[in-house]
Design brief:
Elements: H1 7-28, H2 34-49, H3 68-81, H4 85-110, H5 112-124, H6 138-153, H7 157-170, H8 174-188, H9 192-218, H10 228-236, H11 266-283, H12 285-290, H13 292-300, H14 318-321, H15 324-330, H16 336-364, H17 368-388, H18 400-411
Helix pairs in contact: 1-4, 1-5, 2-3, 3-7, 4-5, 4-6, 5-18, 6-7, 7-8, 7-9, 8-9, 8-17, 10-11, 13-17, 16-18, 17-18
């Protein structure tokens, strides 16, 4: 009798998952999240200006650099096909490939039994469906990040570094994985310094390729989005407090205003916002720290973003229909999609609980490498979001495979080291 975790069964499950992802594109249609609409607008502007995003002429026009890879991929799809549908198909295939690589990574870390349980959880989790109907950057970021871990498990640290830099092109969070992967190598103690050095060579080389291409086109070296300081300043500042004593520190009383901003390019604007933030922080350290609990709650309160794809009417108020407040006020008279959201929430909370149990079992069984990898991505990634983000539930999506892996560990007995 073929074991449950046989390669053929795993491939059949992943293939079925991928087919469903592809079918959801025509069945559900495009999901126009605000970021997606922004990517499309920037892609069309760049095409009209005669080059990939951002072209040289946009450098002084843009308020910030958005996720460069996401915009460029959108632009390429529109330029070749006149539609984003081919890109959605590519993202659906990436989602399926991510599931397969996730199984392989887990298999390398914990054995076939836990890997199969983790794969089944991954395939059953409702939030893993509907992502490929949008252009959000989390899906390609996860594809390249998990691909990097797969390369690392196959003892190809150079490729792992290259893939993490590619992930960073879509979303500037890959440094979290670089740091955690270095810690993973140190704990494993297998040719650790050589592998760490090779990983960093791959990462830096790919950054140089991306940054060099941008420098050749625009005269400025950059390799990732530059939205953090502006967003952090924007969400940290109390816009309703007209009498705040620190208003006098800034032009027009608002740290989000840059005087004569057309004299600066987009990277210089980012530097100004960084300066504004630290000026504000010096006067409001207590307020900044007091925002952390709310940011944490907003980041992990739900995992419902992808469920918006199932709404019959998709518009700028999509999130509102599935928000925690709306679900609470409407319960138990919920629509079918809202019930799906509730099921997903229960599943999500069980994953959080399971991850805590799994981490405890992981440490108890002395699988420190797995604990460092999973807990490291979650904790370091969360810390980055708290200190440099503003708290949004979809920001934790790249960490979900690691919650799932730990939950699978809680449900299964790992192989002995």
């Amino acid at each position: 009798m073929r074991p449950l975790s046989s390669p053929r069964r795993v491939l059949c499950l992943v293939a079925t998952f991928t087919v469903i992802q592809l079918l959801l594109i025509p069945l559900l249609g495009f999901t126009p999240y605000p970021d997606c609409n922004g990517y499309i607008a920037l892609a069309q502007q760049s095409t009209d200006a005669g080059g990939p995003y951002p072209v040289a002429s946009q450098m002084s026009q843009l308020a910030f650099l958005w996720n460069i890879g996401a915009v460029n991929m959108t632009q390429l799809s529109l330029w070749i096909f006149g539609s984003v549908t081919p890109l959605l198909i590519l993202y659906a295939l990436m989602k399926g490939a991510t599931a397969w690589m996730f199984y392989q990574v887990t298999n390398s870390l914990a054995g076939a039994k836990i890997a199969f349980v983790a794969l089944v959880i991954y395939l059953l989790y409702p939030a893993n469906y509907g992502e490929s109907t949008s252009l959000l950057s989390e899906l390609p970021f996860m594809f390249f990040s998990i691909a990097a871990l797969y390369a690392a498990m196959r003892h190809h640290p150079l490729m792992a570094g290259v893939l993490l830099a590619a992930a960073n092109w879509f979303r500037p969070m890959a440094l979290v994985f670089v740091v955690v992967l270095i810690a993973f190598y140190i704990v494993r103690q297998e040719r650790r310094w050589r592998r760490i050095a090779t990983l960093m060579v791959g990462y830096v080389l790919m950054i140089c390729v991306i940054g060099g291409a941008n420098y050749w086109r625009t005269g400025r070296f950059f390799y990732q989005a530059a939205t953090g300081w502006m967003a952090l300043m924007q969400y940290s500042w109390d816009h309703d407090s007209d009498t705040a004593p620190d208003r006098a520190l800034f032009v027009d009383g608002d740290p989000n205003v840059i005087p004569a901003d057309r004299q600066y390019d987009v990277l210089q604007k980012d530097s100004v916002w960084r300066s504004h933030f630290f000026t504000w922080l010096g006067q409001n350290t207590g307020e900044y720290l007091s925002q952390m609990p709310e940011k944490l709650a907003r980041t992990y309160v739900s995992d419902n973003t992808a469920i918006c794809a199932f709404l019959p009417e998709k518009n700028e108020k999509m999130y509102q229909h599935l928000s925690m407040e709306t679900l609470w006020n409407a319960f138990p008279r919920l629509s079918a999609v809202q019930w799906l959201t509730v099921v997903n929430l229960l599943f999500y909370y069980l994953l959080l609980i399971g991850a805590v149990i799994g981490l405890f079992r992981c440490v108890k069984s002395r699988h420190f490498d797995v604990a460092v990898l999973c807990a490291g991505v979650i904790l370091v990634g969360t810390a980055v979001l708290l200190f440099f983000g503003h708290g949004e539930s979809r920001f934790h999506i790249p960490f979900m495979p690691f919650f799932i892996l730990l939950s699978a560990w809680a449900l299964s007995k790992p192989r002995t080291t």
